[in-house]
Every structure is written in C-alpha cells, then in structure tokens.
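Incident review: delayed structure delivery

Summary: a single-chain prediction request sat in the queue longer than the usual turnaround. Root cause was a stuck worker, restarted by the on-call engineer. No data loss occurred. The affected request and its eventual output are reproduced below so the record is complete for anyone auditing the incident later.

Affected input:
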Amino acid sequence: MLILSSVKDVEDSSWLLAHHAKEIDWNRLSTLLGSRPEKAIQRILSKIESEFEGNEAVLGRVRKVRKLLKSTTRKG
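Output delivered after worker restart:
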C-alpha cells in the first residue's frame, strides 16, 4: 500500500508539472532540486521499477508517468 501512495505522489507531481509547464520557473525549480525535475522523477521511477520488478500494477503506473513526463519535456 505504501508504494502505491508513493507512485501516486509521483503521478500527482508529474501531472502538476505537465499541466502548469508554462507557468513554472524551470531554472528556479532545477536550482532547488539540484537537477532538472524530469531527471529527478526519472531516478525515482527507475528505483520503483527495480524494487517492484514483475508487479504489473506498479509498472503500469510507472509507464503512465513516464509517458506524461515525456509530454511535459516537450511543453516545457
């Protein structure tokens, strides 16, 4: 249950990035994170994938976030 809430947090933050891409100060956000937001989310997703290899419910949600993140990168 804990991992599903973690995946949900990543989904929610990715959705916010995608839908507010034009309003976000990307340089400021990168400075605060110490890296580009997309890279930070990709690292989290990779960690989730490796920990839950074979769990299709979790991996499906990770794929959904990666797809959303790809569209965010094009907008931002």
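Verification: The helical segments are 2-19, 26-33, 37-51, 56-75.
Action items: add queue-age alerting; document worker restart procedure.
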